[in-house]
Structures are given as C-alpha cells and as structure tokens.
Amino acid sequence: MVLDNLGSSLKNTLGKIKNTLTVDRNLVEEVVKEIQKALLASDVNVRLVLELTKNIRRRAIEENNAELTKKEHLITIIYEELSKFLGDGEEFVLKEGQNKIMLVGLYGQGKTTTAGKLGVYFKNRSKKVALISTDTWRPAAYEQLRVLGESIGVDVYGDETLKDPNKIYSKFEKDLEKYDVVIIDSAGRDSLNEELVEEIANLRDLVNPSDVFFVLGADVGQTAQKQAEMFKDQLEISGVVITKMDGTGKGGGALSACSTAEAPVRFIGVGEKIEDFERFHSEKFVSQLLGMGDIETLLEKAKLAIDEKSAEKLQEKMMSGNFDLDDLREQMKAMGKMGSFSKVLGMIPGMGGLNIDKNMLGAQEEKMKYWNYAMDSMTKYERQHPNELSTSRIKRISDGSGTSIENIRELLKHFKQTKKMMNMFKDPSALEGMDENSMQDPQAMQKMMKKMGMGKQMKQMMKRGR
Ligand SMILES: Nc1nc2c(ncn2[C@@H]2O[C@H](COP(=O)(O)OP(=O)(O)O)[C@@H](O)[C@H]2O)c(=O)[nH]1
Ligand SMILES: [Mg+2]
C-alpha cells in the first residue's frame, strides 16, 4: 500500500520519542532529520519537506503545552503539522443548491473512474446525479463513461461527434439543470501542455463549477508538483483526488501536489472497483499513518483544561505543610476549570445529595472572584504568610482591591479550613471515623481529588477503606 514505508519510518521515529528519557534540542534535531529522510524517500517535494520540518522544529522548541509531557507534545506537533500539510482537516461537503464538480488532470490519472465513483458516492446520499464527458481526445471516452454510468445507474451525457468540449457542455446545459450534482469529466494529455490547460480553463469559464478537483495518481513522483502548479495557475483547484492509493507508488509526490495546489485532498481511490473510494480526512489519515490509535486520547488530553503537572506540584506543596494563599489560588483555579462550582460540589462526599441552593452557589463563585482580587493586591510575602495579615494590612488590601474587609476575612477563614483539611489528608488516621455512606461516589471523588492535586492521597485512602 502507498505510504507504507513512510508510515513505518514515522512510526519508528515516534517510537524513539516514546522511549527517550528527555526531550531536548538534540532529540528534536534527530527527530526532524528522520522525518525529513522519510518524507524525501517517499517523494515528497524537498521544499515542502523543509518547510514542514521547520515548523515542527520551531514549535517543538518554542511551544509549551502544560497539559502534555514534552514527549506527548512533540508527538502532537508532528501529528498536527502532517495533518496540516495534507489539508484543512475538514471533510468535503456539498454546497447549497446545484453542485458542479469538474475533474481535471493528465491522461490515465483516474478522472473517468473517479467520475463514476463520485457519482455513486452522491447517489448513495440521495442526490440526483449526472455525469458528462467532455473528453474529445481519448478515443471512446464517452463510451467508457456511458458504460460506467449504466452499471451504476447514473445518467450520462456526451456526444462523440462534437470535437469541442464547450460545445458538448452547451448542448446539454439545459438537461443538466435538473440534477443536484453534475460531474464533468474532462480530457487529459500524456504530458502537461499549454493547450490542455487552456482548453480546460475555457470549459471552466463556461461551466462555472462549484468545485474543481485535480485528479492524480499516487504513483506520480516529483512531476506531480509541476502539474499542480500549472493547473493551479489557470484554474482554482478546490480539492485534490488521489487515486491508486492501493498501488505501490510512494505517494509523496501526490501529497506534495495538494500542498502546491493549496487545496486539500478530498477523496482517495483505493482500487479499480467503483466502491474503492473514500472520503479523505487528513487527521484520520495521519493517525492511521502514524499508527496511533491513541492519538485522539492524546489530543483530548492536550485540550484538557487541567494542568496535571501543576496539579502534581500543588499536591506536593499541600502535603509539605507549606500550603499558602498562592496554592489556594491555584486550587481554586483548578476547580474553576473543572466546571461550575456546583458540579464540583456535587462530587464531594456528603454534598452530592444535599439540595444546595443555586443562588447560594452563585454567591460563592462571586465571592471567589473577590478573593482573587484581594490576593492580587497582596504582596508575595503576604500570600506566603497569611497568618501575619494584620488589621492594617487587611485594610490596605481592601482599599487596593476594592473588596470588603469582611470578604478578606472570609478568604482567610476559608484558607485556614482548607489547610486544616490538607493536614487531615496528611494524617489519614484522622479520617478513620469517617462515615462510609458519605462516600457517595468514590470514583467521581477520586477524579476530583486528583484534579485538585490530591490523587495519591485519595488512592491511599481508598485502599485503606477497602
Ligand atoms: N488500482 C487503481 N487503479 C485505478 C484507480 N483509479 C483509476 N484506476 C485505473 O487507472 C486507469 C486510468 O483510469 P481512467 O479513469 O481512465 O483515467 P483518466 O484518463 O484520467 O480518465 C484505469 O485502468 C483505472 O482502472 C485506483 O484508485 N486504483
Ligand atoms: Mg478519462
């Protein structure tokens, strides 16, 4: 299968990342080199390879994703850059009203076959479809399409006696109005020439298609670039169809072409039969290529608002007995990211069953907002030593932050209570008398505790409870 080699090379590289101890510049450099080698060996255009790997290198060095380990981040970057290289990540959808899709490309690339495949594809989606042959060059081109259309039950138009594509199209223009999707199969040439492009540009002006798909085989090597450039200069290519993905071609040329054409791959042909056809999704394709069934989990994780690393740090801090207002703020932030306060509260043992007044919760959230303002107005020393906050200091903070003295006192009370709770976790014997029934949803609680930075302790507690 096309790109098998690229796939296994990339998989090797990712394996190396997974097994490495530290992600540093050297590793990034090594990984970039390997990806370059793999892409070049697959016929991907040199300039594009350099561009792609430059992005990977830059992002790997500059960017940070607190939600991911460095390894995970590097893998995600590689995945994202490869996906971007192949398109916009969006699947093809029909436009409003009638869709006219023009297929262009050199001879033998699979335009006519693709016309049939697209015909079935849209017919299966309850569209009224017509195919029209405007290929006046290839002998029996119309006959080929007609037979194909018959076998799939799709109407086909064409006229072998006419030698001008525009005349053929004009002849049937009225008939074609009644279809949802009209697929225009155009002529190719053995090699790229001005005449072909001009002919197609003329046809394009007449048809005014909603889409122009550039069709090319996965076995086209470096010349794919030139083709793409030439077509792109004269036509607006809106999508690429790569055929013969089932073959032994290296695939990289065709993949480079879509980048040059500045159009995403929309469909791929994976065999000669009409059903050997797939809508293309760059992200799914790259996941497959990289053999990462778990890439989605990784991406989800990347989006997760909870910063596990800082949660761990927070946990350490809490357990060290040095819990201060900065840590409280971190904890509040983590809770805020987990969703509304009421949801968080619902997960706390003993609280879930309570019928808590929604207004009260809203008020609590509001309060926390002011607590944050107050903490902003404190010096670092004050946040680290909240016990030393004298009345005069509290007054100064209140004035500076626009929060009431009452509010600040409440914050300090909350801080003391939280710290007390921390100490309780530190000394699990304090929890021994805890009512089992109050553990409403141990799993949910565990999850929450983990996110709040209390994972390990929770696990220990659960074990003891068993
Ligand atoms: N293996 C394979 N062969 C294909 C695929 N698409 C087209 N072909 C074959 O490629 C050849 C040329 O296809 P055709 O549609 O006539 O190309 P056109 O000249 O661009 O219209 C035919 O033998 C097709 O059967 C594909 O996805 N896989
Ligand atoms: Mg053809």
Question: How are the elements arranged and paired?
Answer:
Blueprint: H1 4-19, H2 25-41, H3 46-62, H4 70-86, E1 99-104, H5 111-123, E2 129-133, H6 141-152, E3 155-157, H7 165-176, E4 181-185, H8 194-207, E5 211-217, H9 223-234, E6 239-243, H10 252-260, E7 265-269, E8 277-279, H11 282-290, H12 295-303, H13 308-319, H14 325-337, H15 341-347, H16 358-376, H17 380-384, H18 391-401, H19 405-426, H20 442-451, H21 455-465
Parallel strand pairs: 1-4, 1-5, 2-3, 2-4, 5-6, 6-7
Antiparallel strand pairs: 7-8
Helix pairs in contact: 1-2, 2-3, 3-4, 4-11, 4-12, 5-6, 7-8, 9-10, 13-14, 16-18, 20-21
The structure holds guanosine-5'-diphosphate (GDP) and magnesium ion (MG).
Magnesium ion (MG) binds at residues 111-112, 135, 138, 141, 185.
